[in-house]
Amino acid sequence: MIQLKDLTKKFDTGKTVLTAVDNVNLSIDDGEIFGIIGYSGAGKSTLIRLLNGLEKPSSGTVDVNGQKITAIKGADLRKARQKVSMIFQHFNLLWSRTVQENIEFPLEIAGVPKAKRESRVKELVELVGLAGRENAYPSQLSGGQKQRVGIARSLANDPEVLLCDEATSALDPETTDAILDLLVDINKRLGLTIVLITHEMHVIRKICHRVAVMEGGKVVELGDVLTIFRSPKKDITKRFVAQVTETEDSTATIKHLRELYPTGELVKLIFVGEQTEQPILTKLIRNYPVEVNIVQGDISHTQRGAYGTLILQLKGSKQEIADAILFLKQEKVQTEVMAND
Ligand SMILES: Nc1ncnc2c1ncn2[C@@H]1O[C@H](COP(=O)(O)OP(=O)(O)OP(=O)(O)O)[C@@H](O)[C@H]1O
Q: What residues does the ABC transporter domain cover (predicted)?
């Protein structure tokens, strides 16, 4: 378990003192994928660097699996850092070394004998899906492959915690998805705790169990990912949730949909968690005389269950449509009639 207690980091720039991390208290469970989201300057990088002792706090403590990272120095700190490894947005690979040699590097530093290093690298190369590319140089790899090397290298010394600093921000959406899938796979296979920082809510939605929202150095909202999607409280959290849910809500989009589907009513269903497992649409179509057309849908799976929206066109008499909407509401699906103004 990772515990942050009253953690504060101030930077003295000579003229002013800037509080980058402001009295943060957090507990992260073993095996959890924990996301920290915030805009640029919120303090995410500073916070994650405090977790592995790259920054010293101005006050407060960081405890990783019973060891106070904030109280140790020198060789002890180097040893503790092997248990908390990190991957980076720009990969931080050694450009003059091959894939194999990059992955081997932390093992060399840890004094692991050659034969053992080689067998470990082989395992890691397999784990991250880079078999056959061992002798390539970073410049010969795609962005996704470079991050796979970064991940393999970070796992070399069997860490307990993996910190991800905007690990997918330099990648295209498809590669991002593949790397996020790999992180989930590693989390499940190795039971590794993952802490990631990002400014992209789709990263949180796809792989995190819980999320903390940071603003001005503080954690302003914290919770299970589905709960945060269902009922974001702070304005900043609402803005992040809107990044992945609100595309179809703009007035222009609604107008466009109404032009395409001019009759009946357009209703938006918001699914959170377990309802998506239930055959709500089947029940609606079997038991109600309305005609149902699927207009648009975006349902995705978070680590805690499905989340998403579905827009339906309901056609029939006023009463038939009203009955169908009542049914949906009774099924505890958040249902909104999309107004046409
Ligand atoms: N070494 C430093 N010296 C002075 N100020 C710093 C230092 N590191 C960070 N800061 C300041 O602390 C604040 C938080 O920065 P931090 O990099 O932690 O935020 P962030 O949320 O990670 O943003 P970004 O995504 O842009 O990196 C910023 O105002 C930044 O300028």
A: 2-241
Query: Per-residue pLDDT for 148 more than 90?
Result: yes
Shortest-distance Cα residue to atom 17 of ligand 1: 45
Residue nearest to atom 4 of ligand 1 (CA): 11
Counting from 1 in the atom list of ligand 1, the atom nearest the Cα of 197 is 22
Ligand 1 pocket residue status of 45, Cβ below 6 Å: yes
The residue-averaged pLDDT of 73-83 equals: 83
196: tokens are 């990631």
The CATH architecture one would assign to domain 247-337 is 2-Layer Sandwich (3.30)
Instruction: Give nearest CA residue, ligand 1 atom 2.
Output: 11
The pTM score is 0.83
d(CA 198, CA 167): 8
Share of the chain above pLDDT 90, in %: 69
Distance (angstroms) between ligand 1 centre and the Cα of 219 equals: 15
For ligand 1, is residue 140 a contact (CB within 6 Å)? Answer: no
Q: What does the block give as tokens for 335?
A: 């249902």
Q: Which two tokens stand for residue 185?
A: 């796979």
Provide mean pLDDT across the span 234-244: 89
Q: What pLDDT, on a 0 to 100 scale, did the predictor assign at position 333?
A: 81
Residue 313 β-bridge partners? 266, 293
Using DSSP bridges, classify how beta strands 161-165 and 84-88 pair: parallel, antiparallel or unpaired.
parallel
Reported ipTM: the value is 0.96
Decide whether any atom of ligand 1 lies within 6 Å of the 106 Cβ.
no
Residue 260 is given by DSSP the state H
Task: Compute the average pLDDT of residues 69-91.
Answer: 87
Which of these, 68, 75, 77, 57, lies nearest to 11 by C-alpha position? 57
Domain boundaries, the chain: 2-244, 247-337
Return the best residue to mutate from 46, 54, 203 for the ligand 1 pocket (most ligand atoms within 8 A of CB).
Answer: 46
Predicted pLDDT of residue 62: 95
Higher pLDDT, 334 or 3: 3
Contact 282 CB / ligand 1 (< 6 Å)? no
Q: Which CATH superfamily is domain 2-244 in?
A: P-loop containing nucleotide triphosphate hydrolases (3.40.50.300)
